[in-house]
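Teaching assistant here, posting this on the class forum so everyone can see the example we discussed in section. The complex has four components, and the goal was to see what a joint structure prediction looks like when all of them are supplied at once.
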Amino acid sequence: MACEAAFRDELRRRGLRMTLQRELVLSALHQASEPVSAEELHQSIAAQSPNVDLSTVYRTLGLLQELRLVSGYDSAGETRYELLSLHGPHLHLLCQSCGCIEGVPPDDAHGFVSALAERFGFEVQIEQLVIPGLCQRCRERGKVARPPWVRFVDPA
Amino acid sequence: MACEAAFRDELRRRGLRMTLQRELVLSALHQASEPVSAEELHQSIAAQSPNVDLSTVYRTLGLLQELRLVSGYDSAGETRYELLSLHGPHLHLLCQSCGCIEGVPPDDAHGFVSALAERFGFEVQIEQLVIPGLCQRCRERGKVARPPWVRFVDPA
DNA sequence: CTTGCTGCAAATTCTTTGCACTCAC
DNA sequence: GTGAGTGCAAAGAATTTGCAGCAAG
């Protein structure tokens, strides 16, 4: 896996060290098929190596983000992480009803992104972009966005 | 102010009540020139009415969101709230370096939004949309994105 | 051996909740 | 009056930090 090598190299260059825990985090990220929370990552690691602490997972994720190997974005109050190298740069569609996530290539966004650059001088970080909305399935079922309007139901 | 009337009406329709605290929250939102956190709102209310509790601010914000008078989005781990009626529907550019926020009209996004609708059946909630990136100022100064890579500095 | 890294526990931050009392209607 | 709303305090959830011992280079 190329990104383990990249990780190792970058650690060396910075005078940091490769450890079993860091390998485990990276490996667990590889195995994940969709963005995972720190907690989920911790649990999947715990399956084979029960002594890795959650705080170590957080520290490693921070490190991996710094090295631009992993991206994280906020979803419903928790951060979900994902290997960048795995799917290439892309953005996410996050359904506000069911919470499902779809990764989409950035192609469709290019016009939008360059419009923002031209008109506002704003440089979009597309890998960090999360689009809130309703997925097809939920739309068809007449679902409504969840956060934070679920607390009580319209009495009408 | 039209939205206070709207608030009042909607409360009545639901059998809920207008209170001083709710008026204060709404009024503080009006006075805010940019999206505010619950904490900031609480402080600005406290200036004139020190006994309003932070939890009441949260509860009122939840209510206002439900009535679609206020929108909230996540920025750097905290939620920032904003009156919808004040500026009309729009999206936000959030600079990952300085944290500044710019509201932009949704026009530029239309192509993108309809592309997502067509290709993925995804209905974007544009008022909830926060675009991460770098503002012009920070870009010119060669700044780099902040969260969560600020924890240590590149030794190179 | 040196110093970065880890596990553990405690601390922080933002937000929510339980409850008795109060006030809008 | 009655039940919705409030303040207060405590609980929660996600994440961070301090520290002493461990281990990678």
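For the discussion questions: Strands of chain B lie at 36-37, 70-75, 78-83, 91-95, 101-104, 123-124, 130-134. Chain B has two domains: 1-84, 87-148. Think about how each of these relates to the inputs above.
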